């Protein structure tokens, strides 16, 4: 092992670690607000990457129909609520707007020459199709059981993940996808070649991490949102309903997931079922942060990336074993520090 | 306590969905069209509608099941086909471990099984049980011999290898260890990766540090791309070899410029325009055309393996019909004998000559050396 | 008893199944049995014990790989040669190995709390799975083939119908054992894990031991299932032991009903059949192109969790007419069996010093919650600790009951310092307590709740519980609980669910539970809160009676009327300090106390 190799591996570890950190933060965010461990977060990553790939390779972009179906379901639920609670013009209008949005997205995807439009437009379109799936997912699957025991929430979360992997296979097929880099430039640091895409990943992640941190640790609104799970009154005072808080965090988590997917799609091959293992590593980071602390989780996630990169070099056969066995001491440390005999439920 | 009432009801409900037996040849197909090896199983499942529907005046019907890449599910599917559907033969499963787990059940019930899997272990060494198994893919060793032959010819003395941590990569590293030792090529590094890994930097660096003359990548489907692009990015200049696992169009699409010059050995399906006319070429061309017309994309070779299984059956059924009616043990046994006597039958993958000892039946006509040039497959001469 | 007849009928039906069902259905039933065995462990671990595990599949793998290695390897190392390829000996080795691994993993991860535990099980589950795949001796990812069938009395079980009997006999035995275990002294300790750990510890239950016990049992069930799986399949590779199977097992447990032994069977059955049906049904709806099974499967689970979060079993039970759902009588008919009375502690002499706090100070950071507190409780005396809200009474209570340790000073119980003692230790020494916020297990019967108090007075362990060899001791324990319940006036509610009692009754239940431990000191945290006048009178009578028997009682209380008429001495606290001590009438006229309660007269 020499410096050059260490640098290459370090670069690799930090790039992956940055993504894990982003996911770890979304996981903590969703958990603190809704008590849900968001297992399907990984599917947003793969959906983001594969949607971009579908655009660029001229494949069938049927994913937009998923949005249409989900939006229709969501509207159906809203409508049912309207009928039982009495009509309200503003709410009816809102349902119409949501449906119109989905229809517009379908029209855009079906008519635009997706392969030729500028990459920024592809990114925007991907985000616009996929991010609304987050709040809709909360609305349909989690909102009705928001006060269920943690185990039930966890099982539903996993079941949604299973369904989404199935959707992924259906929409994107079994083969992997890899997109064009944002820019093809490379540059030399010492005797190591750095790709500009890795810089993109690190910079955007850093930007998102810092903004998340500032938004949720430094603003009153963010704090109130975070506190919804434990302090409903405080949240209400800020005009936040638990339902809204759930949807908002899911939207944010979906955004971060999809953005992560778009960011790493040019440097790796992602498959319809890659999401789980990626989000699992985000979970490791979140655990190191005790499911509460943003900075610790971010550091932990980057550490996971680095450990992964180096164990890949030293013992590629045992990589996963090393990464996942290393969590246990962290878990122990966390668990010993956080409480002694505790009564759940 | 309702369990006692519901359970049998549930079970009977499931039994009723089984269709009544008709006088036709029934063939079961088990593929892994979901789960980790879906990229192998989906083209296979997609091939089922293209399989021959008549043979020797009898219609052939197909019942297609998915095993989610899970060997326990494969057993369930096989038992369902054998015991409930009373099929005369089974094509599948997609995965090597899945196949290893069902051989005894095929043998026990006397049902011929045509396995489109890579590992030679399903037919070698020949045992009483494996008599019922026929393998419609080239043995990894057959492909590997072509590659090693090319390595020796071009003066490769040292070889690095990156393979998937799955049965595919595992079998290839076994085969290569043996062939390289015979050919006097030194294996400098053998690295493993998971299909879903987002980075292969470490493995690739490790291989580069051992500075081999050439590198072989053994991975199924599009997972074969990333090791190669990573090696290229890190400035590896030696020759890169791929296995027939890479022989599908997404490889070119995902790899782009980085996979230029790659050499692989695979069936002639990739280079139909360049090979001289032969019965195999004719069949392969028809298969590729039909598949593309139906599914809007060219088939991976995995699909061709299932197509060939269909052809083998079509070829054997008329002989078997002389010994018994479909649905009887006599027919299945005769079908097995007929399959074992297959000679000079052309398929998409090459020409089959089965013998009691060799249930794979390929010779060198089962593979071509192919190189990537200008982002397309060309026959290496 | 009706439910017993149903069980017998079920067993007979199972026995007849291979004779009447087509072979494929028998094959499916074999898998259902194998899965149910694993899920049964999860019911114990997750449903009863409240610990979620994704790692059960890895234990299945451990059992399967051990037997595959031992029975299908040509040349075993010399030290293993004694197993000589026998499936039964490999089972033994597999179970021992699993026990060792489970104990190690359990010791490491069962201390994890909340969501850390499930994520911890994912971690070692994945690690073990990859370990199977990387090991060459275990056949790597390609697996091990050619396993011999299990031989029973020299007859190889190589047919599905033959395996069927072995699998289902083992499963039914496992269900019987589990059911037995849950209805025992050890079982009550296990059932207290979910939501009652603090309470159980203060009744002398070693909750960590209980956790290890069920973790071990569930691992052994899984390994057993793995052993059967390996010899049924006669080929293994790592796939069935990965995380996705671990998730499937949890799905089965939750779908069936995670809190019930029969839920395990139901869940395993429903999920296995559902997968078959979906494969038959969905192509008819969506056509052959594409695979919709996983999507529909995932959505189906979401739907079930929405409609019945407790699983399908409780829903089925509700369909059964009420008369069939009669409550189980745990106690034998009166006069039928008279189990020996439990031995009793020798109560100390009246007037002997039982509990003494010496200069107890407790600081939390800069906050001094208790400052140099002194108090004494004697046998045959009731002492009340009172004070306005926030005076530090609860902190003091925690110091006295060894839940918390003083920053300085010490607490002496019968002359011995409580320093370093756990609440479990002090329970053993004869101190028993109730809680300010009632802590009981709402779905358990009143009788069983109270019997937890007598935990330390029984000694029979897990194995005799599982085989129900401890019935005599169990009857003694339950009769003691019944006696205490009658003593406090809850004799009519023995078989009610504890959660259905009124709050006042629940407080009384806690006292009965504390009495069941046969203590010499009772610590009561606001026993009269929420009681009606009549109930208070009865409680006062009871406490007086206990005092006359020589019991030492300390109570923290708000209700002045209750305190003044009952207790012998009072200690008053304010701002963490003792401001007065004396007889009730002295306290009533003490100016410092009046000021503390009524505010200063400016």
From TrEMBL, chain A:
<keyword id="KW-0813">Transport</keyword>
<feature type="transmembrane region" description="Helical">
    <location>
        <begin position="62"/>
        <end position="83"/>
    </location>
</feature>
<keyword id="KW-1003">Cell membrane</keyword>
<dbReference type="GO" id="GO:0022857">
    <property type="term" value="F:transmembrane transporter activity"/>
</dbReference>
<dbReference type="InterPro" id="IPR052157">
    <property type="entry name" value="BCAA_transport_permease"/>
</dbReference>
<keyword id="KW-0472">Membrane</keyword>
<dbReference type="InterPro" id="IPR001851">
    <property type="entry name" value="ABC_transp_permease"/>
</dbReference>
<feature type="transmembrane region" description="Helical">
    <location>
        <begin position="150"/>
        <end position="172"/>
    </location>
</feature>
<feature type="transmembrane region" description="Helical">
    <location>
        <begin position="318"/>
        <end position="336"/>
    </location>
</feature>
<feature type="transmembrane region" description="Helical">
    <location>
        <begin position="283"/>
        <end position="306"/>
    </location>
</feature>
<feature type="transmembrane region" description="Helical">
    <location>
        <begin position="119"/>
        <end position="138"/>
    </location>
</feature>
<keyword id="KW-1133">Transmembrane helix</keyword>
<feature type="transmembrane region" description="Helical">
    <location>
        <begin position="198"/>
        <end position="216"/>
    </location>
</feature>
<dbReference type="GO" id="GO:0006865">
    <property type="term" value="P:amino acid transport"/>
</dbReference>
<feature type="transmembrane region" description="Helical">
    <location>
        <begin position="248"/>
        <end position="271"/>
    </location>
</feature>
From TrEMBL, chain B:
<dbReference type="InterPro" id="IPR028082">
    <property type="entry name" value="Peripla_BP_I"/>
</dbReference>
<comment type="similarity">
    <text>Belongs to the leucine-binding protein family.</text>
</comment>
<dbReference type="InterPro" id="IPR028081">
    <property type="entry name" value="Leu-bd"/>
</dbReference>
<dbReference type="InterPro" id="IPR051010">
    <property type="entry name" value="BCAA_transport"/>
</dbReference>
<protein>
    <submittedName>
        <fullName>Amino acid/amide ABC transporter substrate-binding protein (HAAT family)</fullName>
    </submittedName>
</protein>
<feature type="signal peptide">
    <location>
        <begin position="1"/>
        <end position="20"/>
    </location>
</feature>
<keyword id="KW-0732">Signal</keyword>
<dbReference type="Pfam" id="PF13458">
    <property type="entry name" value="Peripla_BP_6"/>
</dbReference>
<feature type="domain" description="Leucine-binding protein">
    <location>
        <begin position="24"/>
        <end position="360"/>
    </location>
</feature>
UniProtKB/TrEMBL annotation, chain C:
<dbReference type="InterPro" id="IPR032823">
    <property type="entry name" value="BCA_ABC_TP_C"/>
</dbReference>
<keyword id="KW-0067">ATP-binding</keyword>
<feature type="transmembrane region" description="Helical">
    <location>
        <begin position="250"/>
        <end position="274"/>
    </location>
</feature>
<dbReference type="InterPro" id="IPR051120">
    <property type="entry name" value="ABC_AA/LPS_Transport"/>
</dbReference>
<dbReference type="InterPro" id="IPR003593">
    <property type="entry name" value="AAA+_ATPase"/>
</dbReference>
<dbReference type="Pfam" id="PF02653">
    <property type="entry name" value="BPD_transp_2"/>
</dbReference>
<dbReference type="Pfam" id="PF00005">
    <property type="entry name" value="ABC_tran"/>
</dbReference>
<dbReference type="GO" id="GO:0016887">
    <property type="term" value="F:ATP hydrolysis activity"/>
</dbReference>
<dbReference type="InterPro" id="IPR001851">
    <property type="entry name" value="ABC_transp_permease"/>
</dbReference>
<keyword id="KW-1003">Cell membrane</keyword>
<dbReference type="InterPro" id="IPR003439">
    <property type="entry name" value="ABC_transporter-like_ATP-bd"/>
</dbReference>
<feature type="transmembrane region" description="Helical">
    <location>
        <begin position="295"/>
        <end position="316"/>
    </location>
</feature>
<dbReference type="InterPro" id="IPR027417">
    <property type="entry name" value="P-loop_NTPase"/>
</dbReference>
<dbReference type="GO" id="GO:0005886">
    <property type="term" value="C:plasma membrane"/>
</dbReference>
<keyword id="KW-0547">Nucleotide-binding</keyword>
